[in-house]
Amino acid sequence: MKTNDFIVIKAKENGVNVIGLTRGTETRFHHSEKLDKGEVMIAQFTDHTSAIKIRGKALIQTSHGEMDTEE
Fold first, then answer.
1. Of 1, 2, 37, 58, whose CB count within 10 A is highest?
2. Which tens digits make up the pLDDT trace of 44-61?
């Protein structure tokens, strides 16, 4: 069930956590990355990833708009 949906995450501070969550009957953490200030990660939803959790100050861009975790 791969889609073209992706998000861009730009860290606004050191130590921003990006956590991928699984699909299925039980949602679990399956991957995590730590970004430092200024680093950018592009993530895509896949057969295994149904959600992405972001901890820390970051700018997030999606096809639905732009969000800032500080707001």
1. 58
2. 877 777 788 899 999 999
